[in-house]
Amino acid sequence: MPLPLIDQLYQAAQNGRKQLAVLIDPDKATEQHLLLLVRKAEEMGADYFFVGGSLLSSNKLAHTIAFIKQHVEIPVIIFPGGPTQVSDNADGILLLSLISGRNPEFLIGAHVIAAPALRRSGIQVLPTGYMLVDGGAPTTVSYISNTTPIPANKPDIAACTAMAGEMLGLRLIYMDAGSGAPNPIPAAMIKAVKRAVKLPVIVGGGMRTADAAQAAWQAGADVVVIGNALEEQPRFIEELATVLRGANHLY
Hints:
The chain has one domain: TIM Barrel (Alpha-Beta Barrel), CATH 3.20.20. It is built from ten helices and eight strands. It has helices spanning 5-14, 31-44, 61-71, 104-121, 140-145, 155-167, 187-196, 210-219, 228-232, 236-250; strands at residues 19-24, 48-51, 76-78, 92-98, 124-132, 172-176, 201-204, 223-226. α6 (155-167) runs parallel beside α7 (187-196) and α8 (210-219) packs parallel to α10 (236-250). It is globular, with a radius of gyration of 16 Å. The two termini are 27 Å apart. The model has no long low-confidence stretch (mean pLDDT 93).
């Protein structure tokens, strides 16, 4: 019987094994493209699929999750943009509390609405401190959440924010520059957050090259999340696989 997802994340972090999550937007994924993507991700050793988005205009979340699980055995975790993004088909959900912002809807409000559906679903809930970081341009998530990202040159703010999330009992920290961000989160900020907490640290947004992913892992990220770049650069998966193997050899 596989370990619960939260235990898998903690065990990998404690053992120094770097992990990779592939982010899937249900609005953008045709079945043909999705099949190629999930099989490539499986070949390269991806650890998780994150499925969801800040703004979903279709009703394809459940179908996308079911399609992925039909073809690969990699755990599928919902990356929700709101309380309606719940599906029994998923293995788990990142229950995101937007601790970098001051909008109560995304700190606790949406969670109250989603709680009954989550309890009925029986999927694993992963309490996650979600931190938006300025990636060089406004993103959908900053607009939808009506919050100001942490300035990229303020690692001390990020560290204290993550520390507060840990003290509140959250189990993971997710630092995100946002989908399509021009710049990834600076290494100095990742290092500061990793030093400040004893939680697994997930980093995503602006990861357009294998070098950017490598820099994040080297700075202390336990999980790197790749999204748009996989669609824009087909060879990126192979380059990333090489970097991931190297990261796990070194760490």
